[in-house]
């Protein structure tokens, strides 16, 4: 079981891991989660679009990791809405998932008092043993890359004792405002997951919302996603290819970011104001691209 945002009353008791004690990194910390169970639990094989430090306070965890640079095409993310693979990790069906025969993995056991770094986009699967309490901290991968770490060398991080109480956690929705993350998401979808059509894009990024909202909301979600697709489909052939995504400019990705914001507003806000008539979709998307 997990709770987004460690209990406020407990945050003063959770030290921020030393690698994150540098003041320059305050703005890259996004979210914390508290995990607890009686043990014997396991996760699916998945990845996160953030960097992650997992700290164990009780019990132990076994972590299996797969390098995405080497094996991205061997680990099928057949549930892209949750960034996970549907394989039964206890009884791997190599007929259904033949690529998993070829992957190499790292294995680590962490116990009470240990913290473990899980890198951005690395495939991983976690098993918890014994009465288990852990806290993980998610932080922005690209946000870290943009920092000046020289300033971190000028302070004695070992002496700092900031806790989670001193941190702000803006949440993972902040990732939708980072064009580097957005670019990475689309590159993965097209290059490794075979997403090439407007419908395919919606199945990955919009279908989960559609399934949990009233039926009248679905058409509006699809209209906005069509605008995103049309902006990226440079030759207007109805097919999105990696060359189009990899050569898209920052200006265009900023437009995609704005459209994602529109999408989120539609999911949570006043739908009537955001619905676009069918005959305006293509013209609007083309005009948006022409402006960039």
Give me some keywords for this one:
21% strand; disordered C terminus; 33% helix; alpha+beta; single chain; 9 strands; 292 residues; globular; two-stranded antiparallel ribbon
**What is the count of DSSP helices, taking H or I runs of 4+ residues?**
12
Largest sheet: 7 strands, antiparallel
Q: What's the order of the H and E elements?
A: EHEEEEHEEEEHHHHHHHHHH
The counted number of beta strands is 9
Strand residue content: 15-25%
Helix content: 25-40%
Q: Report the principal-axis shape.
A: globular
Structure in a nutshell:
With 292 residues, the chain is an alpha+beta fold.
Word description of this protein:
- With 292 residues, this protein is an alpha+beta fold.
- Helix content is 33%, strand content 21%.
- Strands 1, 2, 3, 5, 7, 8 and 9 form a seven-stranded antiparallel β-sheet that branches. Strands 4-6 form a two-stranded antiparallel sheet.
- α6 (198-205) packs across α8, α8 packs antiparallel against α10 (250-268) and α8 packs parallel to α12.
- It is globular.
- It starts with a strand and ends with a helix.
């Amino acid at each position: 079981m997990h709770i987004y945002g460690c209990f406020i009353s407990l945050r003063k008791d959770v030290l921020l891991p030393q690698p994150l004690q540098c003041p320059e990194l305050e703005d890259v910390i996004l979210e914390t989660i508290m995990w607890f169970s009686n043990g014997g639990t396991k996760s699916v094989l998945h990845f996160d679009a953030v960097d992650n430090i997992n700290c164990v306070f009780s019990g132990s965890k076994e972590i299996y990791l797969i390098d995405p640079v080497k094996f991205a095409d061997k680990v099928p993310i057949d549930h892209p809405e949750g960034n996970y693979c549907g394989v039964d990790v206890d009884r791997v069906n190599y007929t259904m998932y033949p690529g998993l025969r070829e992957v190499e993995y790292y294995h680590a056991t962490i116990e009470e008092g240990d913290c473990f770094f899980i890198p951005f986009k690395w495939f991983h699967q976690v098993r918890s043993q014994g009465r288990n309490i852990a806290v993980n901290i998610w932080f922005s991968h690209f946000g870290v890359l943009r920092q000046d770490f020289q300033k971190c060398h000028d302070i004695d991080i070992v002496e700092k004792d900031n806790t989670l109480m001193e941190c702000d956690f803006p949440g993972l929705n902040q990732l939708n405002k980072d064009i580097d993350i957005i670019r990475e998401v689309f590159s993965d979808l097209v290059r490794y997951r075979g997403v090439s059509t407007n419908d395919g894009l919606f199945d990955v990024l919009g279908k989960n919302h559609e399934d949990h909202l009233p039926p009248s909301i679905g058409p509006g979600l699809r209209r906005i996603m069509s605008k995103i697709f049309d902006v990226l489909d440079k030759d207007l052939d109805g097919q999105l290819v990696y060359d189009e995504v990899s050569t898209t400019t920052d200006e265009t990705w900023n437009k995609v970011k704005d459209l994602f914001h529109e999408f989120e507003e539609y999911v949570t806000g006043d739908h009537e104001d955001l619905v676009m008539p069918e005959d305006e979709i293509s013209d609007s998307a083309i005009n948006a691209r022409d402006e960039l």
